[in-house]
Structure to design on (207 residues):
């Protein structure tokens, strides 16, 4: 059934169906009295707020009027909200079949290109969806923006990698010429002077 809905509704509409299904499953526990009425009120109120805020984000995202809001520390004290159960996947034991089914549907909705683009474009969506994923036992990696393939380093396959060309070695420097030999009949003052070899750039090397 959900595959048929996936081809008929957009990702925001399918997200609303997931929230509505969870809402109805929790509200049905009033008659069974497996969950207290106070806890049911808190859970249903949280689900409705998540859906309303996310649908507003999607509408602004489509219209191009969405502003990225970075969380800043609040100086004014925030009034405490009524506490809900804590723990990873805490809704699964309360409504096992329905929560597991809607968790699978939510995973598919978050993988849609439009939802992935929304999560990558603004941190508000990830902050809004993170508690819902925790409630249903979904890993936080679903709300991580995908890496840019242009900047991701791809592994090099040694079998297909092009062979590296060896750098040509520099030619060895030419050998210096031997010092000149004086003739036997050269004067004594010339024999006592040490001959020198003229090197490039005007430098001399003693023999």
């Amino acid at each position: 059934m959900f595959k048929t809905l996936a081809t008929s509704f957009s990702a925001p509409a399918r997200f609303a169906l997931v929230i509505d299904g969870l809402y109805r499953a929790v509200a049905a526990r009033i008659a069974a009295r497996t969950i207290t009425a106070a806890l049911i009120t808190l859970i249903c109120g949280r689900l409705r707020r998540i859906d309303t805020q996310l649908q507003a984000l999607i509408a602004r995202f489509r219209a191009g009027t969405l502003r990225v809001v970075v969380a800043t520390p609040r100086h004014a004290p925030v009034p405490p909200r009524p506490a809900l159960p804590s723990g990873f996947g805490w809704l699964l034991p309360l409504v096992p079949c329905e929560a597991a089914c809607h968790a699978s549907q939510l995973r598919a909705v978050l993988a849609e290109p439009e939802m992935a683009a929304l999560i990558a474009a603004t941190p508000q969506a990830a902050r809004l969806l993170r508690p819902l994923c925790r409630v249903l036992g979904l890993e936080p990696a679903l709300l991580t923006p995908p890496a840019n393939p242009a900047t991701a380093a791809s592994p090099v396959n040694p079998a297909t990698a092009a062979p590296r060309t060896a750098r040509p070695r520099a030619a060895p420097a030419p050998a210096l010429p031997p010092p000149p030999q004086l003739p036997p009949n050269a004067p004594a003052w010339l024999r006592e002077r040490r001959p020198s070899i003229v090197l490039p750039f005007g430098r001399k090397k003693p023999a």
Q: What stands out?
A: Residues 37-63 form the longest helix (27 residues).
